[in-house]
Model the fold of this input.
Amino acid sequence: MTIHSKHAEHAGKPLRKTLVTLSLAVSLVSASSISYASAPAVKPISAAHEISAAEYAQFLELKFGIDIAPASSKGDFIRNVSLALALKADNEAKVAFDDLPVSDPLYGPAAALFEKGIITSSAVNTQKPLDAFTAIFIAVKAAGLKELAYTYPQSKVNTALAKAKLKPGAFSKQAGQEVAAAIDNGLVPSSLFPELSGKKPVSASFVETLLGKVLVFNGSFKHYIGYTSDADIYNKLNDAYNTSRLIQVPDLQQVVDTALKQNLVTGYNLKDLRYESEFIDSLSITYGHDNLTHAKQLIGLLRSEGIDAKVQFEPKTSAYIYLKEWGEPKDTEDYHVVQIENSNYIAYAKEYDLAFEFASAADKQRFQSLIFAYAKKNDDKATGLIASSWWQPLYYSNTELADYDIITNNRITKGNYYAQSFSLNENSEAIVNGFKKLDPALEVETYKFWVDHPFFNYLNGGSN
Done:
């Protein structure tokens, strides 16, 4: 049974809206086990959230397989920049280096950076120990700050260099401009200033931070609107929700809408890859809903329990069959219906996923106990819940958690968009075969993930 749950409330069942796009795994803790007195103290609002070298290092290793050695060479840095930004030369044959033959493993990465203007010399010196300024010169160009740097007059260069107690006379005009722009724009944060005192090899944490900052400037690091503890998180959430719209991708929807008509699936979600959080799987959970007030109160719930997590808002459109006996549907900006051959409709509804990355695995583990206590409806007269709580809340994890159930995501991608439908594991093969029958050239990605037990029960036809 594949599911998209919106139809349930219209059918009069005690099944609240859920979506077919997410999974999570957290240990189930009953509401009665929550110790209010022992809840951790709430973290201060507007706490500083400077990303640490350790967090950048974790991201580089888990996302790109980059492990920074205690001592790096210039060649190592070139390779890692190329790998992190997925850079390849359009035509390597056009690049000739004085000291790097085509047969060298570093030739490809160096050619890619040379072609993009990130390195500019025909002498690469890959074996040279990496010093702070060599790394900065590469990072400024890789971060897209080169043109800005070259607007700096000497007076502005002097002011920026003074922040790091650097002497302008130690640099050529261009070098001084690049270092100044790196300082002013936070590419080199103040925590790294002590390593700018000489040309000695830099530490691993310097390289990790600089690479991480380059990723940030290129939009290749984690994506999030803020932290639960931010003073302006609700304003950012409002903006994200109010500017999101129904996602419509006709070429992609042709297949999944036909699958809906044929009862191959009972619903699907449309999402945009460009909003994906890129959070670390072992620390993250994704939670789906459609109500803005619910999202605000969920963040407030986490704040009140001392949980400070990164938050990403991921727009989502859910599609399902709207039965004609439910009454005449009405189109709005956030809800659209299309009548199909049997006089039923396909309904498209604006929803969202909130992706959370927690500071620790323990905080991730606590999430489910809070949902069960304050965001899961168990009867029609339930009180003490946050607004618009569902009978079957939907949240998931891409890594294993105790007391969660494993289901399958069946996903089709086209460009920046994808359609996905969640199913029981045993039903996935039939769904994939059905998709391919509709379009033999289609590539369908499937993977398993961990979802909360109430939603798993819903997939099995249960009511709670």
